[in-house]
């Protein structure tokens, strides 16, 4: 994050940010520390790099029952807090995490969502975004599970940290749900669009091997098939993509 003032918080919230309980994980340097003069806004200046490291530090130090791990470039909807509380009080009290809806800055939905509230399947998890997710602190801390620090921006494999975390929770028997209410606005730019072809498929190889250890090949062929159908991957490039995928899978195995 590397912030030196709290000004970035002003456009994020529907009222002044001091009305909320906020924990900022400011990944910075010794000479650029962030401080807060607001009782409800706490700051941890961290000298480690990596999104998953930041997420884990936030989970460890969160004080409230519900945790929204968000980015610093989002805008919350006017009733985001009411929608979150309503979801967790509407039969979802024992859920470890709930996915909500996001819209772009023009108030259009950011992507397709299920038509009704439901439990999250593994397929649903693969399309979840971190800005849509709210966690139940009691369930998360009780699970002893944390974000895999090999994944996410600033790590060896720069994507998939939230999917892997949700997948770990689901495999451990924790409930995950989708609630059809909007809580956040964000641009529809995708980090994946900025990753070169070779690096993208290498990262996918590590990601699918970590996410689905015994069935990663099935999932990658599903991914290939979908992208070929959508015109995002040509048949000519499939052998190259697959070789990069295997290389990424092997790179992940070397971290274990």
From TrEMBL:
Residues 35-111 form the Glycosyltransferase 2-like domain. GO terms for molecular function: transferase activity. Pfam families: Glycos_transf_2 (PF00535). The keyword Transferase applies. Gene3D superfamilies: Spore Coat Polysaccharide Biosynthesis Protein SpsA, Chain A. The keyword Transferase applies. Keywords: Transferase. This is Glycosyltransferase. It comes from Flavobacterium rakeshii.
